[in-house]
UniProtKB/TrEMBL annotation:
CDD domains: PBP2_CrgA_like. GO terms for molecular function: DNA binding; DNA-binding transcription factor activity. This is D-malate degradation protein R. SUPFAM superfamilies: Periplasmic binding protein-like II, Winged helix' DNA-binding domain. Residues 1-59 form the HTH lysR-type domain.
């Protein structure tokens, strides 16, 4: 019998006023409770109580053990409660990385909300469109488009988004509206710079074909950036055509600041994943954030995407 169980048994005997009542409370038999008490006394080498059929009186040693047992068992319960609470409460430092525009426009608000729910948590947010990877960049949680290159990471899909070609009315007034994907070669296309190279290929999907299909269009332009938010800003300023996630430009399209181009030529969709390192168990601060984002962030993005699609 372990020491904590012995102390719990002794406290139950004293609190219930004797062996018989303790047996009822413990759902045991008086003989079993009496035997365990004798074993405790034998191990300690002292008599803990003077007992008869009518009385159960603690000896000095028994009183000392009872007082200490109560304090110890309370401490054990406090520790268990604190440790258990960590399964539902996030604490410590949490480093999160996300694409820049998505982080500024959507994630920042959600992280502030999550921090309010968990006052013991400190969150650091890194924004980058350079293709951040967990193990290489020292982040606990990464939101990224597409699966990570490191197969050892855990990746859960948060949401999917349509990719839309957009331009400002001022750009279209000067250079016209492309009628086909191939016509983009005559336009100034705003391109993303990622992992040391410019993304100069835009993929269009062929709907209606038996097995689907796609075609790639090579685009060029005078402006590129590793910051996706900058591409959107250039598009708003009339500098060129940008390929944007629906949730990043939904409000701009609704207000008329940007115009969707080639709506009958859908582009390849993108998947947003939340990526983190495996663990057994996964630290509560990571697990709770992932669950929070899956619910709050995913639902919000899907609603925005639905409105963008309805307005196209």
């Amino acid at each position: 019998m372990d020491s904590i169980s012995e102390l719990a048994l002794f406290q139950a005997i004293v609190d219930n006023g004797g062996i018989s009542r303790a047996a009822v409370a413990l759902r045991s038999s008086p003989a079993a409770v009496s035997r365990r008490l004798r074993q405790l006394e034998t191990r300690l080498g002292v008599c803990l109580a003077n007992r008869s059929t009518r009385r159960f009186n603690l000896t000095d040693e028994g009183l000392l053990l009872y007082e200490r047992a109560v304090a110890i068992l309370e401490s054990v319960r406090d520790v268990e409660s604190e440790v258990s609470s960590r399964g539902t409460v996030a604490r410590g430092l949490l480093r999160v990385s996300a694409p820049s525009d998505l982080g500024r426009r959507r994630l920042s608000t959600l992280l502030a909300q999550f921090a309010r729910l968990h006052p013991g948590l400190e969150i650091t947010l890194f924004l980058s469109d350079a293709g951040v990877e967990n193990m290489l960049d020292g982040c606990d949680v990464v939101l990224r488009f597409g699966l990570p290159g490191d197969e050892g990471m855990v990746a859960r899909k948060v949401a999917s988004s349509d990719m839309l070609l957009v331009a400002a009315p001022s750009y279209l007034e000067r250079y016209g509206n492309p009628a086909t994907p191939e016509a983009l070669s005559a336009h100034n296309c705003l391109r993303l710079f990622r992992r040391h190279r410019v993304q100069g290929t835009w993929r269009f999907m062929h709907e209606g074909e038996p097995k689907g299909g796609s075609s790639d269009v090579e685009v060029t332009g005078t402006l590129a950036s590793a910051d996706g938010a900058m591409l959107r800003e250039w598009a708003l300023a009339g500098e060129g055509i940008s390929c944007e996630a629906a949730w990043d430009v939904e409000e701009d399209i609704a207000s008329g600041r940007l115009v969707r181009l080639l709506p009958s030529h859908p582009m390849q969709r993108i998947d947003l994943y939340v990526v983190f390192a495996p663990g057994n168990p996964v630290p509560p601060r990571i697990r709770l954030l992932v669950d929070f984002l899956m619910h709050e962030f995913g639902d919000a993005l899907q609603r925005l995407e639905g409105r963008a699609g309805a307005g196209s």
